[in-house]
Automatic annotation (TrEMBL):
Keyword Flavoprotein (UniProt): yes
Organism: Amycolatopsis saalfeldensis
Signal peptide: none
Protein keywords: FAD, Flavoprotein, Oxidoreductase
FAD-binding PCMH-type domain ranges (all copies): 22-214
GO molecular function: FAD binding; oxidoreductase activity
Family: Belongs to the oxygen-dependent FAD-linked oxidoreductase family.
Pfam family, one: FAD_binding_4
Family annotation (InterPro entries): FAD-bd_PCMH (IPR016166), FAD-bd_PCMH-like_sf (IPR036318), FAD-bd_PCMH_sub2 (IPR016169), FAD-linked_Oxidoreductase (IPR050416), Oxid_FAD_bind_N (IPR006094), Oxy_OxRdtase_FAD_BS (IPR006093)
Protein name listed in UniProt: FAD/FMN-containing dehydrogenase
Cofactor: FAD
Highest taxon of source: Bacteria
Length: 366
């Protein structure tokens, strides 16, 4: 078993993750390579009265790790059972690895916008995928799990530290997907709201309001502009997809990446930045996008906040991860130095608010 303590070679590398704004300083890091290592680390924590934290990729860190950090980054095994259409992953596997492995069998998982995200952390938060309105939450398709309870004993639930997961895959090889980017935020937001009133479940969509920096790696039409980007993942035919997006295309996007994509390229739909950075994030689910909420979202574009609106509904069933009557989610991501924009935004939603998704809370306690 690999272990690291503060000051030791490898400690800083081991605690580094995608989210750089959470100043973890665990007393001990266990670089786990198997379930036995995880159990030993958890038992050590119990014996010494230390809290246990888990980190795979570091995309979803909330509070700093202070006690024993179980690092699962080495537990990256992925195997596919094509006969059952099931994937089995170890605790540190990312969606990118599952997408690649499943594609070899004509299958695809309920992965999300970014292939670098860890499968286990994502699924424990529910899992809002590119096929979510058709197939529901990733958590609803878990077939089996192995875990280590807080006293170090092995179990098969989703409590404690999960060491492996088995979950269902779907016979999908391509998507009609991509993004339409607009510089006219109000027009795009109102059009998206109206458009989402009546869409088939086979279409999953988000609208991102992104203040793009003026940097050479940003596509020219987006560079230095506050962009409204409508993201689409559709499981029907490309012809039907074209027909569905026609009213949005008619608004004249400055960039249009909609096309038939192999599922292995599904990360290009949102094209989120793959480089580690610091962020604070929160969200609310809403029953509707009232005029008051639309106004609050548009006012927030004056602040340096990324806002992402997701259409829910379809096969998303209310339960542990999702409050009843939730039609939209509005997520906000801010610089840790100034979160006032997102605080005002959530206050303004008032009676539209139905709940909060744990998956999209970053850099702060739940
Ligand atoms: C760029 C980006 C895109 C995203 N896109 C989506 C999306 O499309 N859909 C969606 O639903 N979510 C999305 N998320 C949210 C993401 O699913 C959560 O942040 C998730 O917790 C990340 O898991 P991780 O393992 O990558 O991150 P980590 O920070 O390593 O883990 C996050 C937390 O998950 C828990 N955890 C991780 N592994 C284990 C384990 N083995 N046992 C027990 N607990 C564990 C721990 O509490 C840990 O603190 C996105 C996040 C980012 C930053």
């Amino acid at each position: 078993m690999l272990t690291f303590t503060p000051g030791q070679d490898g400690y800083e590398t081991e605690i580094a993750g995608f989210q750089t704004g959470v100043p973890s300083r665990p007393r001990l890091v266990v670089g786990a390579t198997n379930t036995g290592d995880v159990a030993e680390g958890v038992r050590y924590a119990a014996e010494h009265g230390l809290p246990v934290s888990v980190q795979a990729t570091g995309h979803g860190l909330r509070e700093p790790a202070t006690g024993v950090l179980i690092s699962t980054r080495r537990m990256t095994g992925v195997s596919i059972d094509p006969a059952r259409a099931v994937a089995r992953v170890e605790a540190g596997a990312t969606w990118g690895a599952v997408i690649e492995a499943a594609a070899g069998h004509g299958l695809a998982p309920l992965s999300g916008s970014a292939p670098g995200v860890g499968v286990v952390g994502y699924t424990l938060g529910g899992g809002f995928s590119l096929m979510g309105r058709r197939h529901g939450l990733a958590a609803d398709h878990v077939a089996a799990a192995e875990s280590v309870a807080p006293d170090g004993t092995l179990g098969t639930g989703l409590d404690g530290v999960v060491t492996s997961l088995e979950f269902g895959l779907f016979p999908v090889t391509t998507l009609y997907g991509g993004a339409l980017s607009f510089t006219t935020q109000e027009t795009a937001l109102r059009a998206w709201r109206d458009w989402t009133a009546d869409l088939p479940d086979a279409l999953t969509t988000s609208l991102a309001l992104v203040p793009y920096p003026d940097l050479p790696m940003i596509p020219k039409p987006l560079r230095g502009k506050h962009i409204a980007q409508i993201r689409v993942a559709y499981l029907g035919s490309p012809e039907e997809g074209e027909r569905l997006v026609a009213p949005l295309r008619a608004l004249g996007p400055v960039m249009d990446t909609l096309t038939t994509l192999p599922f292995t390229k599904s990360g290009t739909i949102a094209a989120e930045p793959p480089n580690p950075h610091a962020y604070v994030g929160d969200n609310r689910t809403l029953s509707t996008l009232s005029e008051e909420s639309v106004d609050a979202i548009l006012t927030t574009t004056d602040a340096p906040v990324v806002q992402i609106l997701d259409l829910l509904g379809g096969a998303y069933a209310p339960g542990r991860h999702l409050a009843p009557n939730s039609r939209y989610a509005v997520r906000a991501l801010s610089d840790p130095a100034d979160t006032s924009g997102q605080e005002k935004l959530f206050e303004a939603f008032g009676p539209d608010t139905t709940g909060r998704l744990s998956s999209f809370v970053y850099g702060q306690p739940l």
